[in-house]
Amino acid sequence: MAKSSQPAKRMGRPRKYPPTTPKPKRPKGRPKGSKNKIPARGKAQAQAAPAQASPQPRSNIVQRTYNAHATLKAFHGSQAFHRAIRGPRGSGKSTGCCIELFKKACEQAPSPDGLRHTRWAVIRNTYRELSDTTIKTWLYWFPEEYLGKFNWQSMTHHIRYKDVDMEVLFRALDRPQDIKKTLSMELTGAYINEAKEVPFGIISGLDDAIGRYPSMDAANGFRGASWHGMILDTNSPDDDHWWYKLDEQFRRGELDPKVWEFFTQPGGLVERDGRFAENPEAENQENLPQGYYLNRSVGKSKDHIRVYYCNQYGFVVEGKPVHPDYVDAVHCAPEILRPVPGRTIYIGIDFGLTPACTLGQRLVNGRWHVIDELVTERMGITSFAQELRRKLSAEYPGYSFDVGGDPAGSQEAQTDERTCFQILETNGIPARPAYHNNDPILRREALDEPLRRMIDGKPGILISPKCTVLRKALAGGYCYKRLQVVGSDRFHDKPDKNRFSHVAEASEYMLMVAGEGAQLVKGVTPQADESEWALNIQIDHGASEQSLGWMGG
């Protein structure tokens, strides 16, 4: 092939910049090849007027229209430090909260550099729920291609719009290390999505992080965030939830409305004479398919309809119960169970961010009585140990105890290299792993066996009515979550970690430490204790001393 006589063409585009001048980078968030004008960022934006944007074809214009209904209008108008809104599914409350964050970011007073800086934390129970629901709603209203790329690695959306510089950090409870870092950050505010799944301890912890960004600048007369606070939304929880208790206090006028204000949307359905009908007062109906609530109520339990469509407080089983043999009408004692003198009290403890324990006795005939529970939210093991010790000394003086917990409690903490069991013993509570391994199948069977057992015509385990959280956990709060698949009911193979899982697992450890698991391995039905001994220790209560007994081995 003959060579061309013309000089070789230079490959690529002609250089437009001299070698000493680096070519400016395309701003983040601007689609490659896009000709849309992107406003300058940083201080230059505050100091110079933005360039005139050239007209764009209508096909490139993205419009989002948000219309607030009566309840959300009042919600947007509130200046309370905590603003909490409860509503049925499809009522637009999550959208309203996303809009409120951006609204407050735009209303912040400018910093000395001319920009309105804010930093927000958005909290949800799990990262799966966060990515499948919360983030999708957020990115629908604040799309990446116009407001900046979403960083999926750090789960952060950094928005720069005109003079607004807004950081939004999305965090979930199933990564404790992320929550711990978030609670120590400096934030402008926070949004708790589906707050009924979030322990109140997280709310309290975030309170201390809010209002610390942007920092004050006294030299330039800047007083920091002009507004800071927390917004929360949820479907209706049950009537022993912290939301219900605070809402009732608010209704009775016992809470300062500048600190807490609660808003309740009308239900999508109303119940009349045991039948459900569409509620003409329901909000956001124009954005829902016709007959949305009635069509979805078909085949649902009345409890489900009342909670999710009528917006009434109540308890709903969300998945497949881990302990399906539990029947509250059968296994809940007709009256509060009192401890039997002379019988050992077994204590099972589940550690973690929300430690919990249950207290029970095995009677002479082998029947179990679960007499009490201690359920906490966002409490360290040291504080929990102190709380448990106070409870035992005040309510169960003179009894012997055998304490066991999650075998994972033998692992050393990263902070002071002490184990949970060592911390318990330091606080006067000798404890040990409930079993030599943490086989979940064996552990659950240790509780299922007494639930199925009948002794003298009565159930093999009775739970005191005062154990309200444990009862709801066993009734279905402690469950395998349903998988979002078409055609059949399928569930995750591991129980959902929620506010019910800790006390349920504590009850399993309680039975394991008493030998239920070991006896099942040997194929022997556990009977009453035939021999035991107690090591008495002294707990100093100032002028007097109280004797507490602990099982020894």
In a few lines, what is going on in this structure?
By secondary structure, this protein is α/β, with parallel strands linked by helices. Helices cover 28% and strands 20% of the residues.
Explain this structure:
With 553 residues, the chain is an alpha/beta fold. It folds into three domains: 70-265, 3-Layer(aba) Sandwich (Rossmann fold), CATH 3.40.50; 271-316, no CATH class; 321-551, 2-Layer Sandwich (Nucleotidyltransferase, domain 5). The protein is built from 17 helices and 22 strands. It has helices spanning 43-47, 70-77, 93-107, 127-141, 144-147, 176-183, 200-209, 242-251, 292-297, 302-308, 328-331, 381-395, 420-426, 440-452, 468-477, 501-513, 516-522, and strands at residues 82-86, 116-124, 150-151, 156-161, 164-172, 189-192, 229-234, 260-264, 269-272, 275-278, 320-321, 345-350, 356-362, 368-375, 400-405, 432-433, 454-455, 458-459, 461-463, 479-480, 534-541, 544-551. An eight-stranded mixed β-sheet has the order 3-4-5-2-6-7-1-8, with helices on both faces. Strand 17 and strand 18 form a beta hairpin. The N and C termini lie far apart (94 Å). The model is unreliable at 1-24, 29-59 and 527-553 (pLDDT under 50).
List the helices and strands and how they pair.
Blueprint: H1 43-47, H2 70-77, E1 82-86, H3 93-107, E2 116-124, H4 127-141, H5 144-147, E3 150-151, E4 156-161, E5 164-172, H6 176-183, E6 189-192, H7 200-209, E7 229-234, H8 242-251, E8 260-264, E9 269-272, E10 275-278, H9 292-297, H10 302-308, E11 320-321, H11 328-331, E12 345-350, E13 356-362, E14 368-375, H12 381-395, E15 400-405, H13 420-426, E16 432-433, H14 440-452, E17 454-455, E18 458-459, E19 461-463, H15 468-477, E20 479-480, H16 501-513, H17 516-522, E21 534-541, E22 544-551
Parallel strand pairs: 1-7, 1-8, 2-5, 2-6, 6-7, 12-15, 14-19, 15-16, 15-22
Antiparallel strand pairs: 3-4, 4-5, 9-10, 11-20, 12-13, 13-14, 17-18, 21-22
Helix pairs in contact: 3-4, 14-16, 14-17, 15-16
